[in-house]
C-alpha cells in the first residue's frame, strides 16, 4: 500500500489497512527515482519502516521519540547493509 507523504498515519487511519491484511503502508519514492533518472544519476533505494502503529496495539499514541528511536536503529542496520 502506498500513500502520499510525508506524513504518519494515526492508529485509526491504519486500522482499515490492517484489517485488509496490509502490513506496510509506504510513502512512494517514484518521483525521486524519476527525477534521478532524468538527471542521469544512478540510485539504489533502500526503504525502512519507521512508523509502526499498524502492528503495535499496546500503545495509545506513537510519539516522536518512538519514531526517532526506530529510525536510529534502522539507520544502523542500513549502515551494515551498505
Describe this structure in words.
The protein is an all-alpha fold. The protein has one domain (11-81). 44% of the residues lie in helices and 0% in strands. It has three helices and no strands. It has helices spanning 11-19, 30-38, 64-81. The model has no long low-confidence stretch (mean pLDDT 77).
| Shape designation | globular
Averaged pLDDT, please?
77
- Helix content bin: 40-55%
Through-space gap between termini: 26 Å
Number of domains: 1
Structural class: mainly alpha
Low-confidence runs (pLDDT<50, min 5 residues)? none
> Total strand count, please?
0
- Rg value: 15 Å
- Largest sheet report: none
Strand content: under 5%
Order of helices and strands: HHH
* Total number of helices: 3
Characteristic key phrases:
mainly alpha; 82 residues
Summarize the model shown.
The protein has 82 residues and is mainly alpha-helical. Helices cover 44% and strands 0% of the residues.
